[in-house]
Design a protein that fits this description.
The chain has 123 residues and is mainly β.
Amino acid sequence: VQLQASGGGSVQAGGSLRLSCAASRRLFSNNGMGWFRQAPGKEREFVASISYNGGSTSYADSVKGRFTISRENGKNMVYLQMNNLKAEDAAVYYCAASRTSYGPAAARSVSYWGQGTQVTVSS
């Protein structure tokens, strides 16, 4: 398995979750990483991305100020800290590796998708 996401679950609105993604060294070393999400009946959308060295991050407007993406290159791990969760954040979250050293800003920039992890937010 090249990308393994974990950490999803059920939380009340206003709560927090931390998603983790373990990547193979081949995928992780020089590649930007990102998180996308897909709610039922909706298209997969960009959530956050981070460059290969963590020096540059980007967020969807809907999560700015609430979500934080980070990475530990020594462990081939990328994280998504999600705070103040809202009902509209409920979705399957996917870890993704970029085709380049920059974080993927859209699905077309993704070279590899991990399996999803479900996030449920109850109001």
